[in-house]
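Quick one:
INPUT:
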């Protein structure tokens, strides 16, 4: 057996026997649930993060991610299968290292790969023969091979013989009660056939279905395709919403009827705009990369344009409703924005259109407050610094009645919508939740 195949065979056997140690870098929405799934499948897992507060919380068996309960975390820690650290020297002890760090956009909406690059350098500083390095962060095709692998090979070690490199996109859906890390099929790829084989066996232990593809770039493209598909389809229904509204047609009624078609149609729903860490951002990773090939990504740009125009459209509808129904200008009105999180039943406000709604209402001279059962206070954000520190108001009948309008931006399930409807003077519903609950009324308009 030559040195190359012995490195591969040794790692392969360690993965199969679950004696390999896994290191997960970036213990956020993606990394922590993944660390739990890998630990549960029998591996010893070390979690790495640059944020010492996260490590302190985890050491105290306190999870800060909804998808991971304190009990689940405690079980893995007590079983000796999970620990976390800020000390990257321990990377040398890991046989499989998975990178789950952020991939945001810069101020100029270009990919910001600084986190991926910094992490690759941390790994390179401790790289040794016989490790599998996996990127899970969402990114444009070519990142794993052209950036991660290149940084790692600067050590003099070679991908495919000394160490192995793979990509596997994350498909976490925060708040989803039916699917979690272990039950969502996982696309895997590797740089070369040995890397792919290691990827299949590593992920095969932690998730129920593994979907191998031929290259890291293909796997990177799979993730972008999934998110572009959502962004474009949401933009389409948002555009149809505005057109049908002008015609007096209810888009939600149209979608409910259209989705009875048993083939060739998939329902997407309009809303106040896109939110979350993925859908508003990831498509632009492809737009940026396509420029290198002098190819436009018109669907992506158009979807971005339509979706980001939604908060202004919704506030326009709110102003119109106040005007017509209450004879009151938005500039003299108090508006309660219901739901700050970007989607229902979660606490995540990243890129949430609710923040933009508040900003536009106030730009137009109105006064805005918010209620969100999951977000007690607005944390510091890069874009909405003026909103920092505002607190969620209590949703009492008296408080509701003080507002000229309630703008439903997020349809959290725990809200008592019947009570809300009783106390509110005017409701602008961007999620169709009142109609869905059979609470349509004269003072409820859709936007
Ligand atoms: N949140 C989702 O639902 C979701 C879904 C699919 C894919 N993704 C992708 O997964 C990746 C991670 O997203 P997330 O939502 O988990 O982000 P997150 O912000 O919740 O977590 C990232 C973590 O990485 C840590 N970190 C940053 N730089 C680091 C470094 N150099 N070394 C170690 N740790 C570092 C941060 O402190 C943070 O704890 C992104 O590429 C994202 O696009 C996210």
């Amino acid at each position: 057996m030559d040195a190359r195949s012995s490195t591969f065979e040794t790692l392969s056997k360690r993965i199969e026997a679950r004696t390999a140690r896994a290191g997960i870098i970036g213990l956020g929405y993606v990394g922590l649930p993944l660390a739990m799934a890998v630990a549960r499948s029998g591996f010893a897992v070390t979690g790495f993060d640059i944020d010492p507060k996260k490590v302190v919380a985890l050491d105290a068996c306190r999870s800060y991610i909804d998808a991971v309960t304190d009990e689940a975390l405690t079980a893995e820690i007590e079983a000796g299968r999970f620990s976390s650290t800020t000390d990257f020297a321990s990377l040398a002890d890991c046989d499989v290292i998975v990178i789950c760090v952020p991939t945001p956009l810069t101020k100029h909406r270009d990919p910001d790969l600084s986190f991926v690059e910094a992490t690759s350098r941390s790994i390179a500083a401790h790289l040794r023969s016989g490790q599998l390095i996996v990127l899970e962060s969402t990114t444009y095709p070519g990142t794993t091979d052209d950036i991660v692998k290149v940084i790692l090979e600067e050590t003099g070690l070679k991908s495919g013989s000394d160490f192995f490199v793979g990509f596997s996109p994350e498909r976490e859906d925060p708040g989803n009660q039916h699917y979690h890390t272990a039950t969502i099929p996982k696309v895997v790829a590797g740089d070369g056939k040995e890397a792919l084989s290691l990827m299949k066996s590593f992920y095969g232990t932690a998730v129920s279905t593994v979907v191998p593809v031929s290259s890291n770039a293909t796997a990177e493209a799979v993730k972008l395709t999934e998110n572009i598909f959502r962004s474009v389809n949401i933009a389409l229904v948002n555009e149809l919403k505005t057109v049908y509204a002008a015609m007096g047609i209810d888009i939600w009624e149209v979608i409910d009827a259209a989705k009875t078609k048993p083939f060739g149609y998939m329902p997407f729903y309009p809303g106040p705009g896109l939110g979350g860490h993925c859908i508003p951002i990831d498509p632009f990773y492809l737009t940026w990369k396509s420029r290198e090939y002098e190819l436009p990504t018109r669907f992506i740009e158009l979807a971005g344009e339509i979706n980001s125009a939604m908060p202004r459209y919704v506030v326009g509808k709110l102003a119109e409703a106040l005007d017509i129904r209450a004879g009151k200008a938005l500039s003299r009105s108090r508006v309660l924005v219901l739901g700050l999180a970007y989607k229902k039943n979660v606490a995540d406000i990243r890129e949430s259109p609710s923040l933009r709604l508040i900003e536009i209402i106030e730009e137009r001279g109105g006064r805005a407050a918010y209620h969100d059962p999951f977000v007690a206070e607005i944390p510091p954000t890069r874009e909405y610094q003026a909103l920092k520190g505002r607190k969620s108001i209590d949703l009492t009948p008296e408080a509701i009645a003080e507002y000229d309008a309630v703008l439903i931006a997020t349809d959290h399930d725990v809200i008592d919508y019947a009570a809300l409807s009783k106390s509110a003077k005017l409701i602008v519903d961007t999620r169709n939740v009142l109609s869905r609950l059979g609470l349509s009324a004269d003072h409820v308009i859709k936007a």
